[in-house]
Design goal:
Order of helices and strands: HEEHHHEEHEHEHHHHHHEEEHEHEEE
Largest sheet: 4 strands, antiparallel
Strand order of the largest sheet: 1-2-4-3
Shape: elongated
Strand content: 15-25%
Number of helices: 14
Structural class: alpha/beta
Radius of gyration: 28 Å
């Protein structure tokens, strides 16, 4: 079963071919839903966008199309408006028949380029923190987009890019060793991890040495310390067990759980590539990518002066991995509005690197209280 727009395109092409058999610029034929019901069901401005091809006033072209329109069971009437708009009114009988077929016949989407995989990155909670209602928006929007692409016939991969690497793990390890309540940890491990994380933040405000200790434990983790690696893996597993309870209630599934840690070993090669392409240079001892002035983008730090990587480095590694390991149709990232600039930077850098990737950042508003955003550390979230 064809979409209304596609059925209308066929009829319009027949009329246009009658008045200009040599016409071939079909990309100028665009039929869209009417902006206001008083202008019909659909509209097209084809007569105006193709004025050069017909070498006459657009309204004259619109009149010729209407005069040469083929007999059909779809259209009640065509009206010409303004300088050459054509308003399209559908027959009630056609619409009734279309509705009757829905659910019995599938729509045809063979006009779409569906080759390759669509990878949708969404939800993405941080390990050792319970999900709150702010996570719900990205999770539900991302899964809705996944289901739309499924329906359209794409090969979709749902990727949960979990936050499983970074400074919080040094803090958690210190908190685990100093303040863990083992009974509570057995009953509800992620709640207890969250409690000791908040406690660490409060204690570190009084004792800066704790932050130094956390950095040392994080370095040990990065260097492969067996005990710290064991704790890190344990924190990830208990967190995923908790998240999956929510995903199961929502009937949401993921094909991949690739967190920050998965891309960590790839980041040095990203840095070398940016240097090699002369896209990154040192500024105040940090490695920074600067953008052309017309992009209106702040410089993007890809490596701090202490050698640490940032989200930008990780997301570039992630994008490169998708490019190299999949026949990629499109990469989609679903987050809240705060990451708009971040993804503009990442996408621009990937373009500067010459990566031919179809990519899109889909963002939503952010849930917040009147006096500020949700913060696990402040303990003001709604679960």
């Amino acid at each position: 079963m064809k979409l209304c727009e596609k059925s209308l395109e066929i009829l319009f092409k027949q009329a246009i071919a009658k008045i200009n058999p040599e016409f071939s610029a079909w990309e100028t034929l665009f039929i869209q839903k009417a902006s206001n019901e008083k202008f019909g069901d659909y509209q097209t401005n084809f007569a105006m966008t193709s004025a050069k091809e017909f070498q006459q006033a657009p309204r004259k072209t619109a009149e010729q199309i209407v005069e040469n329109f083929p007999e059909n069971k779809m259209i009640e009437k065509l009206e010409i408006a303004g300088p050459g708009f054509i308003n399209i009114y559908l027959k009630d009988s056609y619409l009734s028949n279309l509705v009757a077929k829905m659910g019995e016949e599938d729509f045809e989407f063979d006009f779409l380029d569906r080759e390759g995989k669509v990878i949708i990155d969404y939800s993405s909670p941080n390990i050792a923190k319970r999900m709150h209602i702010g996570h719900l928006r990205s999770t539900v929007i991302g899964d809705a987009i996944k289901r739309i692409y499924w329906y359209l016939g794409y090969d979709v991969i749902a990727d949960n890019h979990i936050g499983d690497w970074g400074t919080q793990f040094g803090k958690l390890i210190i908190g685990y060793r100093n303040w863990l309540d083992e009974e509570k940890y057995k009953e509800n491990p992620i709640e207890e991890l969250e409690r000791i994380y908040v406690k660490f933040a409060n204690e570190a405000e009084k004792n800066e040495e704790l932050n130094n200790q956390a950095r040392e434990e994080l370095k040990k983790l990065h260097d492969g310390d067996k005990e710290n690696l064991r704790l890190w893996k344990e924190f990830i597993q208990v967190s995923l067990d908790e998240y999956n309870k929510i995903y199961n209630r929502l009937n949401i599934t993921f094909d991949e759980y690739r967190g920050e840690s998965f891309y960590h070993d790839m980041m040095p090669s990203i840095i070398e590539l940016l240097k090699e392409k002369k896209l990154a240079k040192y500024s105040q001892d940090a490695l920074v990518v600067f953008f052309p002035e017309e992009e209106n983008l702040h410089p993007c730090i890809v490596q701090k002066k202490d050698g640490a990587y940032l989200y930008a480095t990780s997301d570039l590694a992630c994008l490169q991995y998708k490019k190299d390991h999949y026949q990629l149709n499109k990469a989609i990232y679903v987050t809240d509005e705060r990451q708009q600039t971040h993804f503009r930077q990442i996408f621009k850098i990937s373009d500067m690197l010459g990566w031919q990737i179809n990519k899109e950042h889909i963002w939503s508003g952010i849930m917040r209280f009147q006096d500020g955003i949700f913060s696990t550390r402040k303990g003001n979230v709604i679960r």
